[in-house]
Amino acid sequence: MEREPSASAAAPAAVAVLFAWGANSYGQLGLGHKEDVLLPQQLSDFCNPECIRRITGGGGHSAVVTDGGGLFVCGLNKDGQLGLGHTEDVLYFTACRSLLACPILQVACGWDFTIILTESGQVLSCGSNCFGQLGVPHGPRRCVVPQAIELLREKVVCIAAGLRHALAATASGVVFQWGTGLASSGRRLCPGQTLPPFLTAREPSRVTGKALIS
Predict the structure, then answer these.
(1) What is the DSSP string of 108-177?
(2) Is residue 7 scored above 80 in pLDDT?
(3) Which domains does the chain have, with CATH numbers?
(4) Secondary structure of residue 90 in the 3-state scheme
(5) Which of 71, 90, 112, 189 could be joined to 128 by an S-S link, Cβ 3.0–4.6 Å?
(6) Do residues 64 and 93 touch, judged by C-beta distance below 8 A?
(7) pLDDT tens by residue, 133-181
(8) Burial of 34 (0-12, 13-18, 19+ CB in 10 A)
(9) Integer CA distances (angstroms), 51 to 37, 84, 158, 162, in order
């Protein structure tokens, strides 16, 4: 006579699987090549998929944050947007070792830059800074290693990135924006008017009033 499983027996753990597909001109799918992929392909060489917390993509690069706060990146890297200390494209998801001692909460990928939020509420950036999208007004035109945005002095709880601008929301409910990527759209929508400072700032600027662009 067969015995029924004990009610206290632990259920088998669910196994997560990571897939990627689509445009892959720069290796942003992390599959080890630069061919476009029409059907989902499993990433077998990545870290244990059970520990993945967030996945995000930019113009030609991708980033994954693990439950342990690790950051893995791949794809286009001509401006150092992967934060690996060089400008070579990367075909497999690779750990950002400069941040191993700094647990990551969230990553936002713009067109050619990356914004990184640590678990302590600090914001870092790397990649192109041609439009002030790194939030470091007097910094170089690009940065290949994540650097702190020192002008964001409040604790940040959420970040976002557009084509050439970025935003951060603080624990007190204030939203900051930097990067001039939306300035041209603002001028077209409001010809002859002075744009709000946050649309033209190359450093974190508080978002005020009604938004011009939805």
Answers:
(1) EE-SSEEEEEETTS-EEEEEE-TTSTTS-TTS-SEEEEEEE-TT--SPEEEEEE-SS-EEEEETTS-EEE
(2) no
(3) 19-206 (2.130.10.30)
(4) strand
(5) 112
(6) yes
(7) 999 988 789 999 999 999 998 999 999 999 999 999 999 999 999 998 6
(8) middle
(9) 25, 22, 20, 27
User: What token pair was written down for 4?
Assistant: 């029924």
The pairing of strands 90-95 and 142-148 is unpaired
Question: Cα–Cα distance between 26 and 91 in angstroms, integer?
Answer: 7
Residue 61: both structure tokens together: 């690069």
Q: Side chain identity at 75, as an amino acid letter?
A: G
β partners of residue 75: 61, 90
Record the tokens describing residue 194, joined without a space.
Answer: 């002075």
145 with 80: CB under 8 angstroms?
Answer: yes
**Tens-digit pLDDT profile for residues 40-82:** 999 977 666 668 899 999 999 999 999 999 999 999 999 999 9
Maximum C-alpha span of the chain: 86
Q: Which two tokens stand for residue 99?
A: 């941040």
Q: Comparing 140 with 16, which gets the higher pLDDT?
A: 140
Length of the chain: 214
d(CA 158, CA 72): 19
* Distance between CA atoms of residues 90 and 149, nearest Å: 25
CA dist 104 and 3 (Å) reads 47
Q: Are 96 and 85 in contact (CB under 8 A)?
A: no
